Amino acid sequence: MKTILHKSATRGNADHGWLKTNHTFSFANYYNPERMHFGMLRVLNDDWIDSGKGFGMHPHDNMEIITIPLSGTVEHKDSMGNSGTISAGEVQVMSAGTGIYHSEFNAEKNLSLSLLQIWVFPDTKNVIPRYEQISITELEKENELYQILSPSATDQGVWIHQQAWFSLGNFTTEWEGSYQLHRPESGVYVFVIEGDAVIAGNKLNKRDGIGISEVSEIEIKTFVGTKLLVMEVPV
Predict the structure, then answer these.
(1) Domains and CATH numbers, the chain
(2) Terminal CA-to-CA distance of the chain, rounded, Å?
(3) Positive or negative, the Cα torsion across 93, 82, 78, 54?
(4) Averaged pLDDT, 169-176
(5) Were 61 and a residue from 99, 100, 136, 186 both cysteine, which residue would form a disulfide, CB within 3.0 to 4.6 Å?
(6) What is the pLDDT of residues 42-52, one digit of tens each?
(7) 235: Cβ–Cβ under 8 A, 6 or more apart, which residues?
(8) What are 55-92's pLDDT values in tens digits?
């Protein structure tokens, strides 16, 4: 087993006034040659955006972009003609492919927006750009991990152009279990959204992350109030 532990306080961060952001991996003005990516997981940004503020139209290409609002509502527009909102309890994915433009703003007038934005390298370049957004509230299973993303359009949750599986877990009681990897060439990055957990024998707190590879199964222990994001990607 190989592990790499990223404590919350060691992440790159920036305070732009309207935007407070933390970068698990090198991004924008934060550069750490030892934190470029975890396998095909390129970006894990933890953002807080003030009411009415956000990112104007900007380009992306050849990247799978996943947005998970934790609280509040995102107002989204893109060059594919999509326009709408994404709220906590939903997940959005864009396959940038040959190229897209999009904007993201806090849709609320009096509330801040908290979201995770995740980028995954695709397994196929220059695909036709696509957009998908779903509610994950009906997928949620209390006190166990439930899948929200996969490589297949017929599987549970959204899908992307990569051999990746994402799961969430919301725990109102203590829980002990395991995560079984789908592929031997995969690794798993676990991000603690809220609370505390013990992952493969390592104690993690709120906003800590750990990358684990060269295993087929990961032991997990959670506590009351823990919320986890588990991301399996090729390494």
Answers:
(1) 11-135 (2.60.120.10), 145-234 (2.60.120.10)
(2) 13
(3) negative
(4) 96
(5) 99
(6) 999 999 999 99
(7) 38, 39, 40, 185, 186, 187, 213
(8) 999 999 999 999 999 999 999 999 999 999 999 999 99
